[in-house]
Amino acid sequence: MTSPRFKRILLKLSGEALMGDQGYGINPHMLQYVADEIHSVSDQGVQVAVVVGGGNIFRGIKAGAYGMDRASADKMGMLATVLNSLALQDVLEKKGMQTRVQSAISMHEVAEPYIQRKAIRHLEKGRIVIFAAGTGNPYFTTDTAAVLRAQEIHAEILLKATKVDGLYDSDPMINQDARFIRKIGYQEFIEKHYNVMDMTAISLAMDNRLPIVIFNLGQRGNVQKIVYGEEIGSKIGE
Fold it and tell me: Across the strands, what pairs with 101?
């Protein structure tokens, strides 16, 4: 087998990815599936960091739209990401992988505080590092947190897991004629206002030339294929 193209990656999972076909919460079967996908590349010596959303439990933006104070709602969303991170940690460790959860909000009894150098050291030792609580600040999405953490740990690429094959010019779940986009530049993505990732995240990635691949998590083996250089999904970059 050829060597992996990327040695250090950051995988961005939405909370909805852990929900599976349920309407709410964490689907144990989906959790196992995600853990297997991570294990498939970690087992090949690839250093893996993960950022998990919290939309399967609580969405701050949605709550804010219904009149809740946005800062308070976002903090609740951050706590939801901690729940997901701990659940993912548990299943990864039961499969024999060493993990660390680092939280941007201090909660020493359940997670380490986020420390950049410590996170990098964990990765160098082959541990899976799960970043919880977003950036620790309201008004920033977990997509932005993923780009930020990817930069801080010097990840070579960010993998954005979705339920579809990649980026389309319209919602493929609604429009059967939606056009698939294999590759797009940062600036074009921003100008066309694609909503698969927020503009703050894309701007930060553009400033630091971080490549992003949007791919279908539901197809087994996609994470490993991307790591080994196959053209899976859609690439945002130069």
Answer: 130
The percent of residues above 90 in pLDDT, for the chain, comes to: 82
Q: Report DSSP letters for 2-26, one per residue.
A: PPPS-SEEEEEE-HHHHHTTSSSS-
Q: Which fold has domain 8-236?
A: Carbamate kinase (3.40.1160)
Write down the domain spans for the chain. 8-236
Residue 50 has pLDDT above 60, yes or no: yes
- C-alpha–C-alpha distance, residues 205 and 150, integer Å: 9
35, two tokens:
């853990």
Its pTM surpasses 0.85 = yes
Q: Which two tokens stand for residue 224?
A: 């490993």
Separation CA 132–CA 112 (nearest Å): 10
Distance CA 17, CA 218 (A): 9
Query: Residue written as tokens 């990098």?
Result: 120
Q: Distances from the Cα of 189 to the Cαs of 180, 186, 210, in angstroms?
A: 14, 5, 14
Residue-level length of the chain: 238
Which amino acid, residue 7? Answer: K
- Residues 5, 10, 14, 17: what is their CA dihedral angle, to the nearest 10 degrees? 40
